[in-house]
Design a protein that fits this description.
Elements: E1 9-10, E2 36-37, E3 45-47, E4 64-69, H1 75-91, E5 96-102, H2 106-114, E6 121-124, H3 129-133, E7 141-145, E8 150-155, H4 160-169, H5 203-212, H6 220-225, E9 229-236, E10 244-250, E11 253-262, H7 263-270, E12 279-281, E13 288-296, H8 302-317, E14 319-335, E15 342-343, E16 356-358, H9 359-370, E17 373-376, E18 384-386, H10 401-410, E19 414-430
Parallel strand pairs: 4-5, 5-6, 12-19, 14-17
Antiparallel strand pairs: 1-9, 2-8, 3-6, 4-7, 7-8, 9-13, 10-11, 11-13, 14-19, 15-18, 16-18
Length: 432
């Protein structure tokens, strides 16, 4: 393998997260060891509350309050709702209140609520004062308030363990986060991959800076800022198949960080290929790689950056990436009848986009899970299907994923048939 050159200079960092407009820093989950009094909330509207009386922190004193800050456009927020609904119904008679708070416009929120079944309270605020009072930097964010009206926990998710603990002890103990297991065969295996990073930042260098300055009193983020370097790095990963990727583009500044990915997944990402099973690695290179790319050049964008990374990989690793079109047995999706679960993009109501998934995005998920090819007929090509509450992540845990996929789609009026089709696949091969 040829030696890879590395260029360094300072860049403007780029953010890739589900953030509130006022967010300035990387969001972090925290718990408070010294509880402080919860600031009063000012709600404009309340939903799912039989008496429609708008609650306050004061009116709920003596009960546990969980504030769940969210937005209709935040997919991670919506994904938690079915589970939160179960927890609410289990603990509501024990004095636990879940209030999901959003500052979405009224019509947008009500469109969303028409399309979901939820039992916990949904509240709307009209300004950002409550978000500022509770230091909300990103969604989802939860704040747990004990029976005394004290904030005892901040985090990202509501869990049964948290609820049980605050009911039993009136507080939440600070839990120590476990770090990912490192590759002991690597010379860099002592590096701690902890905390977050922006696209274009190098976690190895950031962690090095953190370790060097571990005993200094300055804020850790200020120390990390020194690691925001302009670079183009391709290296064997010191991390054990972390499989993390993020990229962002703004005003010709492009940041890409891909950590611990093998070539099949890297080429899938940079060539926008639906799934890994459409790429076969027939080369001798089975290593996991890191790619760190940060540039600010006129006319640059993520697409151009991906093309540059693609060419550098071929050159430095002495490999080829070729198109192979063959006939394969595929699972073809067909709609049995028009129904309310399958809609066009034009039929999507404002505020409901997170409840639906384009068919073309489901196909790669099914392929990566089942390791079989999926296509759809022409009528479904540009359609969206209602996926709220569908446990798509559970498919990979079952012994027969194809059967599970069939059951899920049947509920939405979609059937699967086995057919032979010519589909596009790719191969990674050695140059010599």
């Amino acid at each position: 393998m040829k030696k890879i050159t590395i260029l360094f200079s300072f860049i403007i960092t780029l953010s890739l997260s589900c953030t509130n407009d006022s967010a300035k820093t990387l969001p972090q989950d925290t718990s408070k060891t010294s509880p402080r009094k919860a600031i009063e909330i000012s709600l404009k509207d309340i939903y799912n509350k039989p008496d429609l009386v708008i609650p306050t922190i004061a009116s709920l004193k003596g009960e546990v309050i969980i504030l769940d800050f969210w937005a209709t456009w935040c997919s991670p927020c919506i994904a938690e709702f079915p589970k939160n609904n179960v927890l609410y119904n289990k603990y509501k008679d024990k004095g636990v209140n879940i209030i999901a708070i959003t500052n979405d416009p009224k019509e947008k929120l009500e469109n969303f609520l028409k399309n979901v079944d939820l039992d916990f309270w949904i509240a709307r605020i009209e300004d950002k004062q409550t978000l500022k009072d509770y230091e909300i930097q990103s969604f989802p964010s939860i704040v747990i308030i004990n029976k005394k009206g004290e904030i005892v926990h901040r985090g990202r998710r509501i869990t049964e363990e948290l609820i049980e603990e605050v009911l039993t002890t009136d507080t939440i103990a600070l839990k120590k986060l476990t770090e990912p297991k490192m590759n002991n065969d690597s010379k860099l295996s002592g590096i701690s991959f902890a905390g977050g990073f922006y696209p274009g930042e190098d976690p190895v260098y950031i962690d090095l800076i953190k370790n060097i300055n571990a005993n200094k009193t300055e804020a850790s983020r200020k120390l990390v800022d020194k690691a925001n370097i302009r670079s183009f790095v391709i290296r064997k990963s010191p991390y054990q198949k972390s499989n993390i990727a993020g990229y962002s583009s703004r005003n010709s500044s492009v940041g890409i960080t891909i950590i611990g990915n093998e070539l099949t997944n890297i080429f899938k990402i940079i060539n926008n290929i639906p799934s890994e099973i459409r790429i076969q690695n027939k080369s001798k290179d089975t290593f996991a790689y890191d790619i760190i790319y940060s540039k600010n050049e006129k006319g640059n964008d993520v697409k151009k950056a991906f093309k540059e990374i693609h060419e550098e990989l071929l050159s430095y690793l002495d490999i080829k990436f070729k198109n192979v079109e063959n006939e394969h047995l595929v699972n073809k999706l067909t709609a049995t009848l028009p129904n309310r679960y399958i809609i066009t993009k034009d039929e999507l109501e404002e505020g409901t986009s997170t409840l639906y998934t384009p068919i073309k995005q489901l196909l790669p998920l099914f392929e990566n899970t089942s390791k079989e090819f999926f296509t759809s007929d022409i009528d479904l090509k540009d359609k969206l299907v209602y996926t709220y509450g569908m446990k798509l992540n559970e498919i990979k845990k079952v012994t027969d994923p194809i059967h599970e996929i069939k059951l899920l789609l049947q509920e939405k009026g979609i059937i699967i048939t086995k057919e032979k089709e010519h589909i596009e696949t790719f191969e990674i091969i050695d140059s010599q």
